[in-house]
Amino acid sequence: MIRRSLIAGLALSALALAACSGPSEAPASKDTVTFSILSTESAQNMEGYWKPILQDMEKQTGLKVKPFFSSNYSSLIVAMGAKQTDLGWFSNQSGLEAVRRSNGEVFARTFDPSGVDGYKSVVIVPKDSKLTLESLLKCDKSLNFGIGDKKSTSGTLAPMTYLFIPAGKKPETCFKQVLTGNHQTNLFAVANGKLDAATNNSTSLRLNAERKDGQSDRVKVIWESPTLPEDPIIWRKDLDPVVKEKLRQFFLTYAQGDSPEAARQRENLRRLSIGGFKPADDSHLLTVREMEALENFGLAKEGGDAAKIADAQKKLDGVRAERLAAEAKAGLPAN
Known about the structure:
Elements: H1 6-21, E1 32-38, H2 43-61, E2 64-70, H3 73-81, E3 87-89, H4 92-101, E4 104-111, E5 121-126, H5 133-136, E6 144-147, H6 153-164, H7 171-174, E7 177-180, H8 183-191, E8 197-201, H9 202-210, E9 219-224, E10 232-236, H10 241-253, H11 260-270, E11 276-279, H12 286-303, H13 306-329
Parallel strand pairs: 1-2, 1-3, 6-7, 6-8
Antiparallel strand pairs: 3-10, 4-10, 4-11, 5-8, 5-9
Helix pairs in contact: 1-3, 3-4, 6-12, 12-13
């Protein structure tokens, strides 16, 4: 299966972290925080994009801010649980695991500068490819396919939930080869004809086009998901309350207003397709919890066990009701 057991993934990540970081039982001092960053592109690129933002964070909060970059989603979850990181920018699915297993808590979320609240998972193919969604799902093991990290919302969870499971297909039995990579890796591989198709997301394609890197011009989209929620910012629940308030004030005021300084800050965020940050809590993750429950329901139906199907349906209904109640409380339209 594409989704290996969480325990195995976390165990491997823990070993890797221990090897490179040493003992980590003691929490960070009150004047230092470590901010984890999901490397959807190369770490070098992400460091360049985030460096001025982290410098602004240091200036406004008075805290020393240390970055922690990783393209491995599980390592971000393990690092927070081991108190090697204090807060970070997560995808929705990896953020959900950080909340469940690493004492994490959502306190803010990003919003897109375009005004569109959310993004979409996509499947891309080379621009001149004759491959269609129908031929992709023939599953004749003739194609090489790229997928995301197993904890990636748009790279794996969304295409499994909305594309492969409803079609009764499994990537590992559909394709000649299934390779795992981040969004940039998969985009480059498809654009250069190294992969026949791959998952990606609309934000990654738009950023590539805005930066005039050229790869997005050499691919086309043959499938897209429903709109997915923007990314959460998560901190450890046990952070010092004074530190929490400094961080909260930074995120909720950063790039806001009409001053030249706010404009400079918005330009920093624009390179990441972030318009700013809004307050949020763990209810932000209800949509991805529903996706997870929907995936599990599809897998249960595929297995044919009546008891498991009923249990999965009950859990799906429960999460869906919880999401609708949260949206009603927030005054959002039902969907």
